[in-house]
Amino acid sequence: MSRVGYLPLGDRLAMSAEPLVRTLVNIPPIRLLLNFLGRFAPGGRGLVILVPYAWLAFFFLIPFVIVLKISVADQIIAQPPYSALYEITEKGYLMIKLNLSNYKFLLDDALYWKAYLNSVKIAFFSALMCLIIGYPMAYGMARAQPAWRNVLLMLVVLPFWTSFLLRVYAWIGLLNNNGIINNILLGLGLIDRPIVMMKTDFAVYVGIVYSYLPFMILPLYTALEKMDMTLLEAAADLGCRPFKAFVTITVPLSLPGIIAGFSLVFIPALGEFVIPDLLGGTDTLMIGHVLWDEFFSNRAWPVASAVAIAMLSLVLVIMFVQNRLQRRAEAA
Amino acid sequence: MGGANRSPFVTGWMWAGFAFLYIPILSLVIFSFNSNKLVTVWAGFSTKWYVALMQNRQILDAAWLSLKVGLANATIAVILGTLVALCLARFGPFRGRALLSGLATAPLVMPEVITGLSLLLLFVAMEQALGWPAGRGVLTIIIAHATFSMAYVAVVVQSRLTGMDPSIEEAAMDLGAKPAKVFFVITLPIIAPALVSGWLLAFTLSLDDLVIASFVSGPGASTLPMVIYSKVRLGLSPEINALATLLVVIVALGVITAGILMAHQERVRQRDIQLAIAGNK
Q1: What integer is the mean pLDDT of B139-153?
Q2: CB nearest B179 (choices: A4, A43, A176)
Q3: CA-CA to B120 of 20 to 30 Å: which in A150, A296, B18, B81?
């Protein structure tokens, strides 16, 4: 999962570390070291730009070129299991082989279509549910007394710092047939046989909504907190009912937060692997999981690469749309 | 609690939401003290799973490996991320700035399966062409983690750099300090808190990553999430509950410490303001 939600707590921690760090950098040996570095460290704009640029180009850009290359290679039985893109033939010609059959395979096989559509569906409805659950929460937080706001914000971000994997694991214990929820319901006599919740789409939805809810709350909170409350007072003075004021004033003003939160849940949920793997059933197809299976179970590197390229295109389209919407919402 | 414009519905909903966020974590903690091997069927209080955890070599080895990877990753990510932030926040327009900005933010939204797959394919291709890195393991995990962690560090440090008062740096520059000197003596101490939080962020990201590590790791290098995942796939395990509880305790202690520090800092600030007001009278 992508973890943009970490950032606010990062800033908070930075603030709290301030006095400590200020004392630290004034300790004589550290002062001396910094002075020394200032004098002798290799400086210069060029180097400062070059180092991270080279790293990112090498470890982030080139890998995609390789994925693209392998996505048009043949599957062969070898180590590594794909054919070369080009060969020099005996007569000295350069022969380039482009094999688009991997992409054709993605289009022909219903499995991939289903996985795609299902991922989009699950990600979309999860984001929607996060919005429904998260909006009143963010609203309540933004309207709490200032002293409380930081505490509540901390409570939202705190789960991020515990392991994501273990939080998904917690739901296995809750949703299992002999899990905590079923045991309680059975104990109370409300049901006489366990409700099957694990290994269903329901469990996947619960897992995604649970894991990504803070991503929705944080941008909503930011948008709602900086809202000018006098607008609502003015509306009330002019005889506007609270609900109408909410719909016509609060919601439009928080639209940038809604769009940001929606995409922060939607995009990582789309490529999610861990949640459908641990909580979903065999019929819960999601594209991130399909990629994993193609790669690890079938050792089909070219097909996995083609899936990755197709998935990447989808993410790019979504980000483009999100950007447009965001700009329009902020301009309004 | 309370405040303007809050119906009981909103307050109730909010606390229900917080319950939703915390009940699963709480359930992990409670059932880690269950003596029953069936994790979710209570059979009495016991701490035996903590003892079992401390004797589980596989988990301990993996935790140690994850710790080493996390430390190395966080340090590399802070250096590279700070350089990116410097380029974007201080160097004005330069050729390739847009590309660097794009490259530095892309890992934030990239699905992990894609990052993992692409880096693995790179490492395989490199091994074929250059013979380095020979095989995959700790080194390739560190490189992969640093590549996506640096993006987070860059965001944190960049916001600190744009938020800081530029006149101090300018003054030093006017007085003839070289750029490197200005950076190490003036800028670095001011942005140091952001570096600390960036470091912690990178460390946690690395400690939490399953997908990317699974792609780029090789035999013999299993990180903690990889071991947890392989155990969890087989079903519930009381030792994993104990491990989760330890993690929750560590995080809670960290947050409480940060909270106390923050409150202390706020008090100092308030006192300074009071003194300043009194001094002006």
Answers
A1: 94
A2: A43
A3: B81
